[in-house]
What we know:
Strand order of the largest sheet: 1-2
Distance between the termini: 94 Å
Number of strands: 8
InterPro entries: Phomopsin_biosynth_assoc
Helix content: 25-40%
Order of helices and strands: EEHHEEHHEHEHEE
Largest sheet: 2 strands, antiparallel
Structural class: alpha+beta
Radius of gyration: 27 Å
Amino acid sequence: AESLTKPLPLLDEHGELGSQADVPDRCAPSGIFRRALQAVIVLLVIVALSAAYDLHRVSTGSPSSNTASSSGVCGSDPVTARFRGCMFDPISVAWLPQECHDFDLTREFLELEKAQFWTKAEAGEQPISLANLMQGRHSSLFVRKSYLQYRCVFAWRKSHGAVKNETALDGYTTDINELMKCEKLFQDTEGDDERLHQVTVRYPTCILPP
């Protein structure tokens, strides 16, 4: 019975007896796979920490040490925007420099139950988390009509606060075309609030006070 438990000898390529140690372990993961998995995990951790940091900046209203240039341009992609010290603004759905953020309004806006965002306009699709939203990595998002109305109201409040306090304003808030869209949105009293509308993530300028 003891002989049944012993491993059978193997022949090598020359027809000679070899040992079990010469047989590669086919079940062990390759070094390339492990390194790729580690790289993915590190990248996900960095993205999560960046989103958490942006949420902290919103909650505390603290500026970044790496602020954008005086023109307020955040580039045209999330990586460039974050490098220039910009933050994603859920009100305007845009990347903005710290000078163009109204942190009090942002905190109030995020507390609204209707401030929900989706990545697809499909039935049964779940809204994304706040941390996912603040990463700003999506090129477009889907929202309800009620969100569009809230966004208009908060944009008007932001404009009023900027004029009163002589602070900077982003290009979205001062865009006359967006103002006309808001007017039309409130004139249209009909419409299903469950239907989702697509909004594009923007990279507007930041208009600094003289």
